[in-house]
Amino acid sequence: MSNSDHHTAPMSPVEQRVAALEALLTERGLVPEGFIEEITRRYETEIGPMNGAKVVARAWADPEYKLRLLADGTAAIAELGFGGPEGDHLVVVENTAAVHNVIVCTLCSCYPWPVLGLPPAWYKDPPYWPRWAARCPRRWRSGYGTPPPRSATSSCPSARRARRA
């Protein structure tokens, strides 16, 4: 059965605008035919949080890899084939029983797309904004249902500062 055999709902106004923009970009030669679909496919199947999960699973299963990951995140993550734009300077920190890290940034330019995919919508929402999370990481994490143990300190390394280093 082909997609044309399915009964589909009419496109929403936003979907109509997106389709019109895509058609116009292709018609004017600004993007090749199928380019947007290919980018969408890649983000759905090859780029995203499943890559970050593979990195974490490898670190859990391979203590030597974990040491390399903490020493040079970019190189260790590249061992698994992840990297490229927005993955050219990856810093990895470890949560322990004593220290819980909250990584925040004021710019999406330092969001690690190769291992986490597109930034989630809440990443840019005012309640999440880094200034608040950096000032009160324990209270901020509690609001998301993940309070650190009372005995732990909360660290808020600056992703932006690390990226500039």
Describe the main β-sheet briefly.
2 strands, parallel
Low-confidence stretches: 159-165
**Total strand count, please?**
2
Which structural class do you get from the secondary structure elements?
Answer: mainly alpha
The share of residues in helices is 40-55%
Give the SSE string. Answer: HHHHHEHHHEH
CATH homologous superfamily classification of the largest domain: Nitrile hydratase alpha /Thiocyanate hydrolase gamma
Give the end-to-end Cα distance, rounded to a whole number of Å: 54 Å
- Strand-residue fraction? under 5%
Q: Give average pLDDT, whole number.
A: 79
Placed side by side, the strands forming the largest sheet appear as 1-2
Number of domains: 2
Cα Rg: 20 Å
CATH fold group of the largest domain: Nitrile Hydratase, Chain A
**Apparent shape:** globular
Number of helices: 9
